[in-house]
Design a protein that fits this description.
- The chain is mainly α and 99 residues long.
- The chain has a domain of 38 residues: Histone, subunit A (Orthogonal Bundle), CATH 1.10.20.
- 34% of the residues lie in helices and 4% in strands.
- Strands 1-2 form a two-stranded antiparallel ribbon.
- A hairpin with a 2-residue loop joins strand 1 and strand 2.
- The radius of gyration is 31 Å and the shape is elongated.
- The protein starts with a helix and ends in an 11-residue tail after the last strand.
């Protein structure tokens, strides 16, 4: 089934693609071959295949969220250049006056 030039232009418009008139015939052939391949795939018996969202099995790479002890504020700030009440002192970068 060869797509018409009007069908190719319609699909291109839906995809927000610009197609030059010189490309219409080639695009019609290419899209027609894609549709023929989809028709071929539709002939496959998939009744015994369970639905999946991935074609390969994936495993989570995240660690479990386990509560554990962390550094105290004093220990975390002990090497800071300027620390007050276990907090780093940094230069002011915002005016705070608003506009």
């Amino acid at each position: 089934m060869l797509l018409s030039k009007e069908e190719v232009l319609h699909v291109a418009n839906l995809a927000r693609l610009s197609v030059e008139p010189s490309e219409l015939e080639e695009m019609a052939g290419t899209l027609s071959r894609v549709l023929e391949y989809i028709d071929l795939l539709n002939e496959l018996d998939t009744e015994s295949v369970s639905p999946t969202s991935q074609v390969v099995e994936q495993h989570t790479v995240w660690r479990s969220d386990v509560i554990q002890d962390s550094l105290s504020a004093e220990l975390a700030t002990q090497n800071g250049p300027q620390v007050v009440s276990a907090m780093f002192v940094v230069p002011k970068i915002l005016d705070g006056g608003g506009q």
